[in-house]
Amino acid sequence: MTTTPSPKAPPKIPLATIVRRVDVTPDLWKIWLRPEAPFKFKPGQYCTIGVDGLERAYSIVSSPYEPEVELFIELVPLPYGNLTPILHKLCTGDRVSMRPRAKGIFVMQDRFVNHLMMSTVTGVVPYVSILRSYLHDHRRGHRFFLLQGASYHDEFTYDKELAEMARQHPDFITYVPTVSRPREERNQEWTGEAGRVNTLLEKYVAKFGLRTQDTLVYACGHPGMIEDVKVRGAALGFEVQEERFWKDDE
Fold it and tell me: Is residue 152 in some structural domain?
């Protein structure tokens, strides 16, 4: 007599508790998670979180040295976004599933001296993690040029932190935020750079004196921005590394 072995139950995914939440705009917010299981990652990688079996990947803002995992999330309404409408309703004390392994290869490439980092809104996330970690380790020998685009100036979120990094380390960190709708009332107090971030690539490559042989261009955020940066970068001879935030992933 033979018996059919019982199917193994799928491994239980560890949970993480939301220990803090900050709303930036009606559709942008930050949360800090405390994982119940050990969680290690490299600056620039992403974590996978979920609710009731629905999971999505989110790049990590915090550096590996911080005690909590910080995320910056954009609300994508149905039918394009499935998880973010659920996450948007969660508060401090609520829990989400969190897979114990970080993933992703959108990390700093040390062999390049210069790093031109292009982003749109939440696409700035992996760069914040990379810079926080770089400064924590007291590293030197590289230069970072971070350009962040948004429709409105209140969407930048990490602009004060990045501007302070640039102020303290002007020899190797430069931060340039730009708004694409400078004439709208919501941006009436804006006096900085204007235009879609991808259209500024050539201007700042020339301004910073960047060369193809020692510069890597990173592009993170909206797929349309990334595709244009790849075209513009290739036309100038630069290598481009990308990380896409698809609608259904946000």
Answer: yes
pLDDT of residue 130: 98
CA-to-CA distance for 96 and 55, rounded, in angstroms?
10
Q: Are residues 49 and 146 in the same domain?
A: no
Comparing C-alpha atoms, which of 97, 96, 121, 109 is closest to residue 44? 109
Question: Which pair of structure tokens corresponds to residue 26?
Answer: 């009606």
Contacts of 186 (CB under 8 A, 6+ apart): 152, 153, 154
Q: Do the domain assignments include residue 234? A: yes
* 52 and 153, same domain (yes or no): no
How many CB atoms within 10 Å of residue 55?
A: 16
Q: Which residues contact 242 (CB under 8 A, 6 or more apart)?
A: 106, 218, 219, 220, 226, 229, 230
Over the chain (250 residues), the average pLDDT of each successive run of 10 is: 54 93 98 96 97 96 98 90 95 97 96 98 97 98 98 97 98 98 96 97 98 98 96 98 63
Question: Could you tell me if 78 and 143 lie in one domain?
Answer: no
Sequence-distant (6+) residues with CB within 8 A of 51 are 83, 86, 87, 90, 96, 97
Q: What is the pLDDT of residue 15?
A: 97
Look up the domain containing 89 and give its range.
15-98
Residues 143 and 180 in one domain: yes
pTM of the model as a whole = 0.93
Q: What is the DSSP letter of 9?
A: P
Residues 81 and 128 in one domain: no
In the chain, the DSSP E strands lie at 15-25, 28-35, 46-51, 54-59, 69-74, 95-98, 114-120, 143-150, 173-179, 193-194, 215-221, 239-244
